[in-house]
Write a structure and sequence with these properties.
The chain is α/β, with parallel strands linked by helices and 295 residues long. The chain has eleven helices and nine strands. The longest helix has 16 residues.
Length: 295
């Protein structure tokens, strides 16, 4: 892949040129574009960031150069890096990604952190991850709390298959987890008072939200992003079902849009939940709201 002779374009030159194309296509700054160019070049060449910098004057063979250039073009056109390289880091692990399934994001780790606070380490609580997507939330919880009985639900067959692949992928990374995965419609098939903790990052964007036409979101599945009733429809349904599915004292924790904290808190309050709280994401925006069923 990296030649020994003087022929061919040097890696540094390719990266600079690629960063310019990505920055122009996406409208981002050059530092961000160069970071993404290195990720894509590293994916093709197998080199990490340090090696890419140390070997910047080395020439590339034509096939490698063309493969990297194709990824640069696709990123400049807006395709998410996570789809181009097929994975994304989340919590302590790497998760496989694919078109048709929402890409895990760092802000969602706040939901995992809060869930782990609510789960004792030496008992066997039952946990549900609703709308699991890649499985990142549920699998991260299962890896940290091996005694917990974790299950993941998603309406999408594409998502449940990917979550199952990620269950095996985590095992390759040294985290053996036994999360159950099934295709279904939220909590409709769950027995009353059988669950101790529910976590969910449901669709919460209004269909008219202009953010749907920006950035990586343009390439992600609409059904995983958009919900009726100003983005609150799935929250209403989950809150209604969770009131009977949770055991007394059980918790329901949601991720939501930064402008929806009050609305989600009101839904929990109206359903009789207590100890309602909202926590902020890495950007200090109100991102996660939850409450406890009385008892």
């Amino acid at each position: 892949m990296i030649g020994e002779g003087g022929a061919g374009e040097a890696l540094d030159t390719l990266l600079r040129r690629g960063a310019e194309r990505i920055a122009a296509g996406r409208g981002c700054d050059r530092g961000e574009a160069l970071f993404e160019a290195r990720l894509l070049a590293g994916f093709v060449t197998g080199l990490d960031t340090t090696a890419l910098m140390l070997q910047g004057d080395r020439p590339l063979d034509a096939d490698t150069r063309e493969a990297v250039d194709r990824l640069f073009d696709r990123r400049a056109a807006g395709e998410p890096v996570a789809y181009l390289v097929g994975e994304r880091g989340f919590w302590r692990y790497r998760f496989q990604t694919a078109p048709g399934v929402l890409i895990p994001r760092p802000d969602t780790e706040v939901l995992v952190e809060w869930a782990l606070e609510r789960l004792p380490e030496r008992t066997a609580p039952c946990v549900l991850d609703l709308g699991t997507g890649t499985g990142a939330i549920g699998l991260s919880i299962a890896a940290e709390r091996p005694a917990a009985c974790v299950h993941a639900v998603d309406r999408s067959e594409t998502a449940t298959r990917l979550a199952a692949r990620n269950r095996a992928f985590l095992a390759e990374q040294g985290a053996s987890v036994g999360m159950g995965i099934w295709q279904g419609d939220w909590l409709s098939a769950v027995a009353p008072e059988s669950v101790d903790l529910i976590v969910s990052n449901p669709p919460y964007i209004d269909a008219d939200d202009p953010h749907l036409r920006l950035g990586d979101v343009r390439h992600e599945p609409v059904e995983a992003l958009v919900a009726a009733d100003a983005g609150l429809a799935d929250y209403r349904r989950i809150v209604e079902q969770a009131s009977s599915v949770l055991r007394p004292g059980g918790w329901l924790l949601f991720e939501h849009g930064f402008e929806q904290a009050d609305a989600v808190a009101a839904l929990l309050d109206q359903a009789g939940f207590e100890a309602i709280e909202t926590r902020r994401d890495l950007g200090k925006q109100p991102r996660v709201t939850g409450g406890r069923r009385p008892g």
